[in-house]
Design brief:
47% of the residues lie in helices and 14% in strands. By secondary structure, the chain is α/β, with parallel strands linked by helices.
Length: 394
């Protein structure tokens, strides 16, 4: 049996939460591994006790830097106490003095993205610019500290390897359609009412909290173009966020995007649903007709797989990661072209054959992603590290 220690303290939103919510149940079902999982107190409450999983906590620290410093001092003691043989650092940063071999999960493409740094400078957001530079330094040195670094896609693994000068292994994140669809939680009456009011419209969906790199502004600029081209047809865009201060993780400023959104609302319908619980997301996907993402940088993008599994045609910015994940289940546009985005949506709206083909391709493609397979590959990698030290236990 392999004994893992998983540092999941950094999981607070987006892909980090999705990762732990799927990997922990998979590990709990296995007889060949035991995992000790370090979580923040809020996330810890989601998981029941299990014979194969132990949970530990440390006092919460405000701010990424304080958390990182606390991790460096407290986690080695927890690892020794747990008897773990391999550390899995799930939050982009390695433990500098790990007492056991370390697998680093690196999934933040902001540290390698020239587009993001250029965007932040253009917005004059000095705080995020400086914060990203500091974290990028830590992330680069983390790759050099870990025995193995894993990226969630081959495209991002290549980018990360070129950036760090070290080999990076690609292991796709997974998807569990049964778990995603089995929860019976309904959408809130407010959200369902908004969807019901769009029954006669072309319903577009974008699942993300607000940040700069998901490129919301290009999506907003595409909406008036769509309205002009699809004459006489209502188009309605649903967002799983609200563009107001304090409503999104991080310190991204929403004023510019909110101002642009207010301008286009004169002729376009955009609905800020706010955060939708993961347990009812499948209902939201199925109530929409096209999934769109204009992100200009990405490392995997779980909502793409969720959308494909729900039968939605996908319109995505032309990134190597998006092509790797979606293949022939999406139409692609230049990442800063509102007109290109509108063109792709129009092709789907105007051709039921295109929409049907993309939907069918997506359903097939989504079946290629498996959390069970991901966990098996991670455990195989951990086994290699343990055997190299001659420490496989019973």
């Amino acid at each position: 049996m392999i004994r893992l220690f998983i540092n999941g303290l950094a999981a607070s939103a987006g892909g980090g939460l999705t990762y732990l919510r799927n990997v922990i149940p998979q590990l709990a079902r296995r007889d060949d591994a035991h995992a000790t999982v370090l979580l923040n107190s809020a996330l810890r409450r989601e998981f029941e006790e299990n014979r194969n999983i132990s949970f530990v906590e440390i006092a919460d620290s405000n701010g990424a830097l304080r958390r990182l410093l606390r991790e460096q001092t407290a986690i080695p003691r927890l690892i020794r106490r747990s008897g773990a043989q391999v550390l899995v650092s799930a939050g982009n940063f390695a433990l500098w003095n790990s007492p056991v071999p370390q697998i680093l999960l690196s999934r933040n493409s902001l540290y390698t993205s020239a587009d993001f740094m250029r965007d932040v400078r253009t917005r004059g957001d000095c705080a995020i610019w400086m914060d990203t530079l500091a974290k990028a330094w830590l992330a680069r040195h983390s790759v050099r500290r870990a025995e193995v670094t894993v990226a969630p896609s081959a495209a991002f693994a290549r980018e990360l390897s070129e950036w760090s000068g070290r080999e990076v292994i690609a292991i796709h994140h997974g998807f569990d359609p049964g778990a995603f669809n089995r929860n019976g939680s309904s959408l809130s009456p407010e959200v369902q009412n908004q969807l019901d009011h769009g029954r006669d419209a072309l319903r577009l969906l974008f699942v993300s909290h607000y940040n700069y790199y998901r490129n919301f502004e290009i999506l907003f600029r595409a909406m008036p173009v769509l309205s002009r081209r699809l004459k006489g047809k209502r188009v309605k865009l649903y967002l799983t966020c609200q563009l107001s201060a304090g409503e999104n993780p991080g310190s991204y400023r929403t004023e510019a995007a909110s101002g642009l959104l207010n301008d286009i609302r004169k002729s376009c319908e955009v609905v800020e649903l706010g955060a939708v619980p993961y347990s009812s997301l499948h209902h939201l996907y199925r109530d929409c007709q096209v999934y769109v993402t204009p992100a200009y940088t990405e490392s995997f993008a779980h909502p793409l797989v969720e959308a494909m599994s729900s039968g939605l045609p996908v319109v995505a910015s032309d990134l190597a990661v998006h092509r790797e994940i979606c293949g022939n289940a999406a139409l692609y546009f230049s990442r800063f072209s509102a007109e290109g985005l509108a063109d792709c949506v129009c092709r789907i709206s105007e051709s039921s054959e295109v929409a049907k083909e993309l939907s069918s391709n997506g359903l097939r493609r989504s079946q290629d992603f498996s959390w069970e397979k991901h966990v098996s590959q991670m455990l195989a990698m951990a086994g290699v590290l343990v055997r190299s030290r001659g420490e496989i236990g019973d």
